[in-house]
Amino acid sequence: AGQYGAPGTLGLGFAWVDTYLEALTDRPSTISSFIVDHNNMHGNASASHNGGSPGGGGNAGGNNVSHASSQFDPSVPFFVSQASQAPPEALARAWRKSSVGTSLFGGLAASEKEHRLTNCSWRLWGIALTKERAACARLTQRAAAGYGTEIPEDSDVEDDRNESSTSLKNAASSGEDEPEIKEEAPSELPLWRQPTITWAPPRITPNLYVVMVSIHGLVRGEEMELGKDADTGGQVKYVVDMARELGRHPHVARVDLFTRLVGPNIDGVDESYSVPLEPLDGPDGRSFVRRLQCGDSSVYYPKEQLWPHLREYSDRCVPVIQQTLAALNAQSDDRIRLACVHGHYADAGEIAANVACTLGVPMVLTGHSLGRNKLEHLLRGGRISPAEVEKKYNISRRIEGEERALNVADIVITSTAQEIAEQWALYDGYAPRLASVLRKTAASTRYGRSMALMKVIPPGVGGLELEADGGQADGAAATENGAGGGDASEGNGGTGNEEGSMRKDGMMMRRDGSVSSSMADLMQAAPEPAVWDAINRFLRSPGKPVILAMCRPDAKKNVASLVKAYGSTPGLKDLANLVLVLGTRGSVEELSVGAQSVVDDIFRLIDRYDIYGSVACPKHHTQADVPDIYRLAYATGGVFVNVALQEPFGLTLIEAASHGVPIVATCHGGPVDIHRTLRNGTLVEPRDVKAIGAALLGLVTDRDKWNECSRSGLASIHKYSWKSHCEKYIDAVVRCRGGEGSAASFVAGPPPPARTRNA
């Protein structure tokens, strides 16, 4: 560490920082005012008002030092100048060390000097961070302007040279390439002014290997068959999109998404699910689907029957991961490390726990849908007995798997805060109040804590990227569907279509002012998407606003309540069409027993309310058709509906918002957080049929409200992107893995100790 200590103190490491801080705390009469002046001099005038965050130089915890200065001490500027030259991590270490006494024992037990030391180190940490950022910014500007990266020798930039050396020392201690330092002949300047630093941008090296596990359903990268069965739903899209985006992260060398190998020669199952290795991002990409045998590969097990085969699958995963890691290190000059094993859902969570404990690496868990919460909602409905729940869902084994995974997990990724407070809190392995205490004490250190860290990281929308102008979604969310946020101006629904616009009565208006009730008639200049034809053939008046629901045929999705609301709300079936996209199917008899029951109930309700010609329920669609289905709802001034009894997150709500479609959603689960962020619709109680109908009628008939919701969703949709998700995810994993707050610093970190917890 001495190599990167203060100039003139080589070999002493960062111990000299404590010496200066101790000297400063003996001079309380002048230190505070001088630090504030020093802050202001470095462009941080608001430091004393920013709430005390590092990098801002604010006060720590309200431990203010008096600003009254009766006598100026000339030694204070020297001590502050020297201490603020230390790398920020040295000052952060000093602050953490000094704050132990004041945070654990309180202000009465801690001495006044300890309070001053905590405050002083915190504020100097902020100064050092500010100087480092300013120096790097100036060096970057010089390089961009063509002046080169060598610092001139004039006195005006002497401070810059010193600040930039701090930044480069920090980079070197984080494992990045060291800059070239040319030592000049001794001069009359102090020792710490002498080096001339040639600056170059740090080299980012992919050094992390991420393993993800999603065992049930049919997983593939292209043409996902979402809704084909009860196990192939939103989770499949979630893990594939996440793995693909993680593979593009600059610090990730490879991502393997482990799933099961199915087939070949199974009726109704494509042979692509029997391919052992599938690239997700092209042949040159860094993300892959890996398929290993789980039980008998000639049988497609539903997820409730996979439990006996999980240990066997875990044993198969371990050597494959070890071989892949060895091959990556053989091909790279940099050390590649296994960052974590990430299990999705209860079954894969148990596999991830087994593998993580075997390999001695952190485990990450995403529950997606939790057994205790599902059991509670099923029993509350009163339609099924506990014995039937156990027989159908194998719910006790699922809960056991979740408890095992939670016991081993270092991090639990959740989509919403509600998932933590109302779902994970039901489990024996997580107690919110105890977890808070553990994180604030020494028990929360790396592997010493006995409770997982809950991390809220909302998922993204596949294909959603941000424009350079900061905030408008691109093709899939705005450009391709013509919904340019603010273009939905007063008086029309803002279809963004050059051929026409939406009137307040829901009918389509051509550019010449005539009215059309047909999308095909409206879009004469462009061919209709094929899926529109598949939907419109069910409808007598295709131009009416579309009330859209898109989910698999599952009783918990509560589609029957939506049909009841549509059929029983006066005037609604005359004003709008209902489109139900319930996965893909051949005949109803080919569906599972649960799905057959749902579809049969829907057909009976259509007959009861006599809404033939107003309801479309297409049998087939592909993943490529999904954006066009959302565009149909947008172009007709329609609404997207998700009134599930309990929705863990609600990714389809985000997809609808990215296409400018307002929503009516359940008030239970993730949609609450989504609505709080996007403000693009209405939340309802899913069992209240009248409330669902009133919400739909309100959005369909009130065009001003429709426009407002559509614009609000488009304006905020950038908060849900996979790029942002993966950046937060990697940061959380690196911190857990032992890095100093960045993936770059993780390269130089020591290997983790062997795991002692058992799955």
In brief:
The chain is of the alpha/beta class and 759 residues long.
Largest beta-sheet characterization: 8 strands, mixed
Portion of residues in beta strands equals 5-15%
Question: From the alpha-carbon coordinates, what is the Rg to the nearest angstrom?
Answer: 30 Å
Structural class: alpha/beta
**Helix amount, in percent?**
40-55%
Q: Which residues sit in consecutive blocks of at least 5 with pLDDT less than 50?
A: 1-12, 41-70, 102-109, 151-200, 464-525, 740-759
> Based on DSSP secondary structure assignment, what is the total number of beta strands?
19
- N-to-C span: 38 Å
Report what the structure shows.
- The protein is an alpha/beta fold.
- 42% of the residues lie in helices and 11% in strands.
- It is built from 26 helices and 19 strands.
- Strands 5-6-4-3-7-8-9-10 form an eight-stranded mixed beta sheet, sandwiched between helices.
- Strand 12 (508-510) and strand 13 (515-516) form a beta hairpin.
- Helix 17 (559-568) packs parallel to helix 19 (593-608) and helix 17 (559-568) crosses helix 23 (689-701).
- The longest helix has 33 residues, at 112-144.
- It is globular and about 90 Å long.
- The protein starts with 14 loop residues before the first helix and ends in a 13-residue tail after the last helix.
- Residues 1-12, 41-70, 102-109, 151-200, 464-525 and 740-759 have low confidence and may be disordered.
